[in-house]
Amino acid sequence: MKKVLRFFLIYGLFRTIIKVAGRTRWVFLRFFFKSSYIHQKKVVSLIGCGQFGFATMSYFLQKIKYNCFLECFDIDNTQSETAANFWGYRKVDDVTDLINNPQCKYVYIASNHCTHTPYAIQAIRAGKIVYVEKPIAVTYDQLSDLLIELKKYPTLIYAGYNRPYSKAILQLRYFLKDLNLPFTLGCFISGHKIGLEHWYRKPEEGTRVCGNIGHWLDLSIHLFNMRGYIPMKYEINVIQSDSTDLDDNLTISYSTDYGDLVSITLTSREEPFEGINETINLQCGNVISKIDDFRKQQIWVGNRKYSYSYFPKDVGHARCILQPFIKNNRDFKEVIYSTLLMLKIKEMVLAKENFSCYDMSLDLERL
Length: 367
Fold this sequence. Notes:
The chain is an alpha/beta fold. It has twelve helices and 15 strands. It has helices at 2-11, 13-24, 51-65, 77-87, 95-100, 116-125, 140-152, 167-176, 207-227, 317-321, 332-350, 360-366, and strands at residues 39-47, 67-73, 90-91, 106-109, 129-132, 157-159, 183-190, 233-240, 250-256, 261-267, 277-284, 287-292, 296-301, 304-309, 355-359. The strands form two sheets. The protein has a nine-stranded mixed sheet. Strands 3-2-1-4-5-6 form a six-stranded parallel sheet, with helices on both faces. α2 (13-24) crosses α3 and α9 (207-227) crosses α11 (332-350). The protein is globular.
């Protein structure tokens, strides 16, 4: 009960209720989401009905698109059945049937990480508008295959890297845009503690570099582009606290040929009571930003100071998930670049490599 109260103070009433519903699958809680009963053309189908697909994707979709839900699929029958009962999806047992349904216009993908690319490719070939949760690929071959299909088929694809759509980053854009100066960025993340049996740990899932750290790698690429230039050359350092624990409690830092310095620390020694907690600090020229868990931000520009607060906490999920229905979205090339950087760092982590010089342009040429 203490955790529910704390989440209410952070996220507000309805987001807290849906987080509880996602964990418990108590269908009676749908009473609080009456908008899901408002008639709307059913055009959105969901692949992956776990906590994120159920309590985040579906929640924000129903807030704007109401009862737009067509079909859902999950390899866990209980997950898909409870999502269908709660939100009004029609449960299907074959993902191909879901994708090929002519009524389906949008396919949202929130399955396990290594299946994101195959499902996305299947949906692209079927002519659907695709929203794929991060990561968009966990290997170079997957990324290459995805980009080949995007060149063949005239469709739209969106990625679930949400921090660039947070209110804090959208406000920072006003001060940072086109400064064309190098910056220093520091991200400190208290992440979930996950057990050895968690599906993130399976070799094919891409480690926590793909599963978690990719968020902040992507944020750095977005900020590079925002200031006016994405570097191609990186000197990357990876330091773990324990050589037997490769993707927990580590710091990744990289400098660029433009003079940037980025440091990302993930710590997961104990489960944070309030969920993931992050602190982000940035300096670019005379612009300094301090973001406290996407609940507060302070910005200094020379001798001027600006203070912002965000309730409920806003890490950008709402705006990010609604990309297919809203104009003025980020350039997808940022996601391609951040995926390449992520895959390089994943490769370093698995090889227990502490330092590498990386020229992204060489990988771009091969794609």
